[in-house]
Amino acid sequence: MPVSNGREFLSIPGPTTVPDEVLQAMHRPAIEIYGGELMAITNGCLDSLRKVFKTSGDTYIYAANGHGAWEASVSNLFSKGDKVLVLESGRFAIGWGESATRLGIEVEVLAGRPGRAVDVEAVEARLREDSAGEFKAVLVVQIDTATSVYNDIPAIRRAIDAAGHGCLLMVDTIASLGIVDFKMDEWGVDVAVGGSQKGLMTPPGLSFNAVGTKAKAVHQTAGLRTSYWDWTARDGDVHYMKYAGTPPVHLLYALHQSFNMLKKEGLDNVFLRHSLLAEAVRRAVSVWAQANVVSFIIDQPEERADSVTTVRLNGDYDAARLIEYCHRKCGVVLGVGIGEYSDKAFRIAHMGHINAPMILGTLSVVEISLAALNIPHGKGGVQAAIDWLSERVTA
Ligand SMILES: Cc1ncc(COP(=O)(O)O)c(C=O)c1O
Fold first, then answer.
1. Is 133 helix (H, G, I), strand (E, B) or coil?
2. I need a surface site. Which of 1, 123, 209, 384 has the fewest CB within 10 A?
């Protein structure tokens, strides 16, 4: 007998739960797109993007998913045959590199270390070898959603500077924006890429570029620019051109509402909420791991992401079965393992519109599934999460 009736709990690392206020903001008739209220919505969203990316640079909104924003960043900066260095730490920087390859860019991958964040010393060493300055950019993710690793972006900037290399630093924040802090200008990031459907609590379909002055100068000579992705074509005051065509009106209202909610909560509080809930998840996983079947993918606690936790099942235990049990029997949808972790891992998302009961509910269902499927695990993971929150969330 399943106990799954009632509202389904979405615990996948994007798209994430869309708040009712955001859904309601979209429930409106179509409106004029050449003048009127929409101009203010666009300007408000572009400005709010500057605030979450923490940049005084230019921001751009695409009617596209994250793959679109990847392609936008590459086509606006490079010409065929240009070379970039991709820093592997899971699946997604590799994907960005693959999209660059398809555009005619020469991509070198700096291999990652299993279970670890990007090795900043290896970045510095590789860039030192490039004395001719062939690499035009370094591409890296702040959080990789497959491995759930957190990369130290300021440390990567320092490695580039220590090597005396002039390449651009390009960062994918699709699984981190609005979840953990990102200081584009202070950290010396030249281009950042984001998406609507994770920390920004908006339905999928919008993605972003944020662009600093150095990147804007490089952009002037890029040979891969297209009429849709082009940054320059979107600059200026003509509203229609901000989207290179018809604006994604209803998604813009949704995004605007989501920024209102982030502003009301306060970005620092948003980051703190995520870090407290993420640690609650990690406390539970640490207890389950005591029987040596369940384990983290990421070895070092400080390299574990605050947006998602990838949990490995060692031996012959089948993560797909656990995911299926949680969904069909208990109404919780966990993230599947990606790439080399498919069937070996499940992912617990803790990003976006989440609170304590959602996280504790999800953890409880995982604990039920571990017991019901006879997967050896330490007892009391949920209790450890409760203990953590009751210590930190004071009266
Ligand atoms: C870190 C990261 N980058 C890029 C993407 C690709 O985004 P999209 O699926 O919206 O194209 C994802 C999707 O999960 C992601 O997690």
1. coil
2. 1
pLDDT, one tens digit per residue, over 259-302 is 999 999 999 999 999 999 999 999 999 999 999 999 999 999 99
Confidence of residue 326 (pLDDT cuts 50, 70, 90): very high
CB 138 within 8 A of CB 85: yes
> Which of 98, 174, 196, 309 is the best mutation target for the ligand 1 pocket, counting ligand atoms within 8 Å of the beta carbon and taking the most?
174
Does residue 22 sit within a domain?
A: no
Residue 96 alpha carbon to ligand 1 centre in Å:
9
Asked whether the beta carbons of 134 and 297 are under 8 A apart, the reply is: no
Look at residue 105 and tell me if it is in a domain: yes
65-85 in b/e burial notation, b at 16+ Cβ within 10 A? bbebbbbbbbbbbbeeebbbb
- What integer best gives the mean pLDDT of the chain? 97
Q: Are residues 133 and 216 in the same domain?
A: yes
pTM over 0.90: yes
In the reported structure, the alpha carbon of residue 338 is separated from the centroid of ligand 1 by a whole-number distance in angstroms of 12
Ligand 1 nearest-atom number relative to CA 142: 1
Domain that holds residue 52: 31-263
Q: How far is CA 369 from CA 3, 10, 318, 363, 375, in A?
A: 12, 16, 12, 10, 8
Q: Are residues 289 and 254 in the same domain?
A: no
Q: Within this chain, do residues 206 and 352 fall inside the same structural domain, yes or no?
A: no
